[in-house]
Amino acid sequence: MPVYREVNELPHCGSCGKLVSVGGIRVERLGHPLLFCSERCIEVFDSYKVPKYGEAALWEESIVR
Ligand SMILES: [Zn+2]
Q: Where are the domains of the chain?
Protein backbone atom coordinates (compact mmCIF):
# COMPACT_ATOMS: atom_id res chain seq x y z
CA MET A 1 0.00 0.00 0.00
CA PRO A 2 1.53 3.29 -1.09
CA VAL A 3 2.18 5.91 1.51
CA TYR A 4 1.38 9.46 0.53
CA ARG A 5 2.85 12.37 2.36
CA GLU A 6 0.50 15.10 3.42
CA VAL A 7 0.73 18.13 1.17
CA ASN A 8 1.68 20.29 4.11
CA GLU A 9 4.69 18.06 4.79
CA LEU A 10 6.09 18.72 1.34
CA PRO A 11 8.52 21.62 1.03
CA HIS A 12 7.28 24.95 -0.23
CA CYS A 13 9.37 27.53 -2.04
CA GLY A 14 10.98 29.83 0.53
CA SER A 15 10.04 32.87 -1.50
CA CYS A 16 6.71 32.47 -3.30
CA GLY A 17 5.32 29.64 -1.17
CA LYS A 18 4.59 27.39 -4.14
CA LEU A 19 4.64 23.67 -3.48
CA VAL A 20 7.95 22.27 -4.72
CA SER A 21 7.57 18.60 -5.50
CA VAL A 22 10.43 18.13 -7.97
CA GLY A 23 13.34 20.17 -9.24
CA GLY A 24 13.60 22.69 -6.46
CA ILE A 25 16.86 24.51 -5.80
CA ARG A 26 18.40 23.93 -2.42
CA VAL A 27 20.47 26.70 -0.87
CA GLU A 28 21.87 27.45 2.55
CA ARG A 29 20.47 30.65 4.07
CA LEU A 30 20.48 31.92 7.66
CA GLY A 31 22.02 28.64 8.74
CA HIS A 32 19.31 26.42 7.24
CA PRO A 33 19.05 24.42 4.02
CA LEU A 34 16.12 26.05 2.22
CA LEU A 35 14.24 25.09 -0.89
CA PHE A 36 13.27 27.44 -3.70
CA CYS A 37 11.42 26.82 -6.94
CA SER A 38 13.59 29.07 -9.13
CA GLU A 39 16.67 31.29 -9.26
CA ARG A 40 14.36 34.27 -9.37
CA CYS A 41 12.83 33.29 -6.06
CA ILE A 42 16.27 33.05 -4.44
CA GLU A 43 16.97 36.55 -5.72
CA VAL A 44 13.73 37.87 -4.21
CA PHE A 45 14.52 36.14 -0.93
CA ASP A 46 18.03 37.61 -0.74
CA SER A 47 17.26 41.10 -1.96
CA TYR A 48 13.85 41.67 -0.43
CA LYS A 49 12.67 39.23 2.19
CA VAL A 50 15.82 38.89 4.30
CA PRO A 51 16.60 42.63 4.46
CA LYS A 52 12.97 43.35 5.32
CA TYR A 53 12.08 40.49 7.66
CA GLY A 54 15.40 39.07 8.83
CA GLU A 55 14.95 35.73 10.60
CA ALA A 56 11.19 35.97 10.09
CA ALA A 57 11.78 35.54 6.35
CA LEU A 58 12.44 31.88 7.10
CA TRP A 59 9.43 29.67 6.56
CA GLU A 60 9.29 26.47 8.51
CA GLU A 61 7.85 24.65 5.47
CA SER A 62 10.79 25.67 3.29
CA ILE A 63 13.48 24.18 5.48
CA VAL A 64 14.78 20.94 4.02
CA ARG A 65 14.90 18.16 6.59
ZN1 LIG B 1 9.19 30.28 -5.73
A: 7-62
What CA–CA distance (Å, rounded) separates 18 from 16? 6
The pLDDT tens digits for 47-60 are 999 999 999 999 99
How many H-runs (helices) and E-runs (strands) does the chain carry? Answer: 2, 2
Span from the CA of 56 to the centroid of ligand 1 (angstroms): 17
How many angstroms is it from 34 CA to the middle of ligand 1? 11
pTM given for the model: 0.82
How far is ligand 1, taken at its centre, from the CA of residue 38, in Å? 6
